[in-house]
Amino acid sequence: MKKYLYKSHLGNLFWSDNKIDDEYLYCEECGDYDEYLGEASNIEEAKALIDRVSHPYRDDKDADEEDREFCQYTDEHVKELLEEFEFKSSTKSPNRMESKIDETVREINSGMLKFNMDFINNHEKMKELGFFDAGEYWLYNKFLPIKDKKYKDCEFSFYFEIYKKDTVEKSSMCILDEDFCQPYDYQRCAADDLYNELNNGVIDYINKLVNDNVLIPDEAYAMGAKRG
Description:
With about 230 residues, the chain is of the alpha+beta class. It folds into two domains: about 5-90, no CATH class; about 100-225, no CATH class. The chain has helices spanning about 45-55, 65-70, 75-90, 100-110, 115-120, 125-130, 165-170, 190-210, 220-225, and strands spanning about 5, 15, 35-40, 115, 130-135, 135-145, 155-165, 170-175, 180-185, 215. It has a five-stranded antiparallel sheet with strand order 5-6-7-8-9. A three-stranded antiparallel sheet has the order 2-1-3, with helices on one face. A hairpin with a 5-residue loop joins strand 1 (about 5) and strand 2 (about 15). The chain is elongated, with a radius of gyration of 20 Å.
């Protein structure tokens, strides 16, 4: 499975499970952009990609030897990136909890949940339900409140892209860390209380989408098809 490497406008590198649209790489707060660096399908490609972006002057013929050997990221950061890549690529990791996002994606892929295309093709209805028309897809971006005072300075949101064409294949959802403008892998979160709060928030939004008939459980879909 491919992972996509980005350089945050704050300087750090991070992986994304999905390629991020250019418009969402922009940070309104500081006016800067995150930068797409490349993709990797296995650990060897990940190592080669990180090594290349870590040594920006290696192939510069005009640079002296010291500049060509210069590495702009610490060994610790590179190690963390490789560990994260291996973790994200492992579907059998004992440390990863199945979140509501994992469950929902699995149900959509298996056909247990279906997109209501009558709604998705209805511009007024989708706007009424809180979706933003982003051209090729509908965007559902909702704030996730955190009650625990330890995380009062953290901001997260539930982010769901529903594509108007190739809906099942392209649509994706994640939790965004608003402070760093990048996806947050909360399934790996060490703090159970934070995981529970974020997951409960996602559950509420998924249930709302089911109640609003944007997502239809398999039984309801089958009954609707028979009535039609």
